[in-house]
Each structure stands twice: as C-alpha cells, then as structure tokens.
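Tip: read the tokens left to right.
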C-alpha cells in the first residue's frame, strides 16, 4: 500500500497550500493508492521513465522511491538503456549517474 505523502505540505504548505494539498492528497493519496489498477512498483517505473525523458530534478527522488518499491538495479539499468535511444544520450548519462549512486549497495 502506498505510504502517506507529506512532501507537498512539508515543502510548500505555507507558500502554495492548494498545490501541496493536490500533491499529497490527490496525486499520492488517490492516484498512487490505486494499486488494484497498477502496482506502486509499476507506477514507479512509469514515473521514472517519464521524468527521465523530461530531464527534471524530481528524477532522483522517484528513483529512490522506485528502489523502495522493488525496482532492481538491473531493471533500472535496462529502463535507462532503453530510453537512451528515445530521449537522448545526455539524459541517459545523467540518469545513470543518479542510478549508480542510488543502487550502490
């Protein structure tokens, strides 16, 4: 089951309370919790793939979440290798740097 998310409120609650509420309660509370439709592990793979293609800073946090959801190092390496041809070599290099740090154990 998806864990209760508070990152929105923790980081933006005072500054952008509605955005924080939508992040924590709707995105993570309602969408991510629909594990009968798609597992948290699969959602993590999809999210990492999407963020990798966009080259956004949230990629690192979601790679860590993916690892917690059971995505293995080999699966992450394969995901990045596969997407390198669709999203670009520099983004893949950057993603490998993050993955290497996250999966170093």
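Filled-in amino acids:
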């Amino acid at each position: 089951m998806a864990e209760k998310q508070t990152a929105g409120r923790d980081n933006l609650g005072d500054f952008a309370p509605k955005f924080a509420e939508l992040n924590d309660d709707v995105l993570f509370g309602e969408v991510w919790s629909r594990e009968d439709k798609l597992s948290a592990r699969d959602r993590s793979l999809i999210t990492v793939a999407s963020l990798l293609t966009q080259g956004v800073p949230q990629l690192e946090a979601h790679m860590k979440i993916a690892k917690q959801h059971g995505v293995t190092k080999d699966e992450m390496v394969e995901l990045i290798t596969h997407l390198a041809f669709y999203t670009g070599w520099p983004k893949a290099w950057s993603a490998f740097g993050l993955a290497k740090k996250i999966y170093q154990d």
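Helices lie at 7-12, 17-31, 40-54, 58-68, 73-87, 89-102. The longest helix spans residues 17-31.
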